[in-house]
Amino acid sequence: MNPKLPYILLVGAAVIIFILSCMLLSRDRRSPSCESQPSIVEKTGSMSKSLVFADLTPEEMVQVVRYLQGKLGVQLVDASRAKPSDNCIASVDLQVPAKAEVLRFLDGGGARPPREALAVLYFGNQPDPNVTEYVVGPLPTPAYHRDVTVQKYGGKVPYHRRPMLGSEYEQVGVFLETVAFSAAPTFLQEVLEYDSKNVAFQTTAPHGFQSGDRITWFVLFQNVSGFFVHPVGLEVLVDHSSLDVSQWAVSRVFYNGQYYRDMVQLESAYVQGRISVEKVRKAPRDGDFSSMKPRAPLAALFPLQYEPQGPRYSVRSNLVLFQAWSFGLGRYTSPLVPGVDCPYSATYVDTHSLSETLRPRKRKASLCIFEQNLGSPLRRHYSNLQSLYYGGLVNSALVVRSIATVGNYDYVWDFIFYQNGAIEGKVQATGYPSSSFFHGDGLRYGNRLWKHTLGTIHTHFINYKVDLDVGGVKNSLVAHDMAFEMTRAPWSPEQQIERPRLTKKVLDTEDQAAFRLQSKMPRYIYFAANSKNKWGHQRGYRIQITSFAGDHIPEASSMERAISWARYQLAVTRRREEEPTSTSIYNQNDPWTPTVAFADFINNETITNEDLVAWITTGFLHIPHSEDIPNTVTVGNSVSFLLRPYNYYDLDPSIYSHDGVFFTSEQDFMACEINPLACLPKTASCLPSFPPFTYDGFQNM
Predict the structure, then answer these.
(1) Which tens digit of pLDDT belongs to each residue from 561-590?
(2) Which of 177, 227, 246, 695 is the most exposed place for a label (fewest CB within 10 A)?
């Protein structure tokens, strides 16, 4: 035995004991876990009243389905399996009560409006196929239903206007695989190495050129991760207007810049060597350049946000309370990833929906709520003249967020509530860029993103309906701006000066309040109340828009009326119960005879001292570029609108915030009672307790 070995072992043991002792001692000195403050207590009755806007519960959805199955007298097929010739329930959602009824309940002590659902049904199995909308109530035990289709849209909704169900997409996929593609086996095998599983489809809208058409282009991509930027050059136009699937047919084929009558002609031209073939290199399953897998190894963790004393807001059922704000929540969409889509410590809310199925579906963590320190002062001033002081307020705001994935795009929807009484509606776009197969003069229509990928120019438009009541239901629309006036200097009359002055105008009619997309709009435009603040000004809320919209489609287009809301950056109309939305989902499949045409809302009615609605359009032009690979980033792709108090208060309400900081040169600004920032090493040195990571986005697909 080596005589030095026992000493080496003893020394090693001593070192280990020392390390363990240090660990134990340091553990005792660790910062404590963050403790939550007492939860916010809501006002008496506010919880109950907020439920007037609450989404349907799963139990209510089930009751509506059972009622319809038993009362309509027709067989209803599960929409997930329905053929075009079947009857089915497309969706069940909340029917929002009429505004007058809600206000009588909330403000006037009136009866609670009956709780009702809106059910959309496709009737394909009857002599006159159509889409019908029923209001079903009262919930939770339905006893009546009424057809509101004609009341809402002025007539029946033709069956060809119905949105495509998932089952119809699947049926078209089967048609392509078993009927269309069987006519071109040589081309598909030798050019695309087609095996029925290595291609993915993306569709286009509208479906044709005139009312009644249901003819859709199906664009083929390699079926890999991020397939949206892997076009193969083949597109197939399918006529699926017949309710009999066996009557569907290929109307046209497009490959590498050339059109063919059908797949038979494409096959014949290929076999005879009359096609210019551009064979695309087969991409690996991860998509290669389109993969979102990080190209760099893990390093130091990115900054995290936490609340040292717990959330300063409360969420119960659909009611949210934050400082002086309170509101109800509706349902949103895709499951969110904690720590990326929202701060890890945000409050995550599950939602339920019933669409294209007979059973409700739960979307876990599809909405998040969090208070965010925006990293800048909401207001501040450092005084080094006369008196010496600093005063400021951290810009902390409550954010309600959802993210909707629509095909290749992901839209981040935020509603932000600020301490000064402002509200912001904001949307950020990300996801994969719109692309097509690069050929010929493709650079006229976008930028080349990869060898065979053209990023195609396109626009995004978002329209918000803002039903804003300022100091009561009756408001007027007022515009303030500036103009220079030439005047003589009072102290030196021989001199002229240019002096900015305030311009004021009341916009009396809907025509005056409709501002075209690229036109000049007053920089201060606000809803004015019939009451005044302490200084004699009409109390108001200003509308401020941030947008980088592209051009609107020419009004001469046969489809323009279907999206005529996009003509205007802002339009203010008199509120009408029969004008609930600026468009309709049925417009997409029949823009030539729109179910709802926003242009008809603007008919020069007076809007002075009326219940008003602002229709706000934001958007941006997107010319995809190489940095959109693999994904479009949110930076620079954000548009929004603000509702800002304008003489609504007597002073900035954020002065009453508990987060304010103020100290002078004569005070001990290192003392906690003078400056709360001096206490941060003590009050904010706790360790947040993060729950385990969970994600349910891949469940129940």
Answers:
(1) 999 999 999 999 999 999 999 999 999 999
(2) 246
Q: Which residues, at least 6 apart from 693, have a Cβ–Cβ distance to it below 8 Å? A: 338, 339
Q: Which residue has the tokens 């900054």?
A: 303
Same domain, 515 and 613: yes
Distance CA 202, CA 541 (A): 43
3-state secondary structure 658-697: CCEEEEECCCCCCCCCCCHHHHHHHHCCCECCCCCCCCCC
C-alpha–C-alpha distance, residues 582 and 600, integer Å? 10
Nearest-angstrom CA–CA distance, 277 and 346:
52
Distance, in Å, from the CA atom of 558 to the CA atom of 553, rounded to the nearest integer, reads 10
Q: Quote the domain boundaries for residue 125.
A: 44-157
Token representation of residue 342: 């929202």
Please say whether the beta carbons of 419 and 657 come within 8 A.
yes
Instruction: Report the number of distinct structural domains present in the chain.
Output: 3
Rg of the chain taking only CA atoms, in angstroms: 31
Give residue 16's pLDDT: 34
β 638-646/476-489 pair status: unpaired
Q: How far apart are CA 404 and CA 126, in angstroms?
A: 35
Q: Which of these three, 275, 290, 305, is where a domain ends?
A: 290
**Is 21 a residue whose pLDDT tops 60?**
no
Length of the chain: 701
User: Final residue of a domain: which of 269, 290, 311?
Assistant: 290
Residue 370 has pLDDT above 70, yes or no: yes
Residue 217 tokens, joined: 């282009």
For residue 295, give the 3-state DSSP assignment.
coil
The two counts, helices (H) then strands (E), for the chain are 9, 31
**Packing angle of the helix pair 185-192, 263-271 (nearest 10 deg):** 70
High-pLDDT (> 90) share of the chain, %: 77
What is the distance between the alpha carbons of residues 59 and 38, in angstroms, rounded to a whole number?
Answer: 32
Give yes or no: residues 111 and 198 share one domain.
no
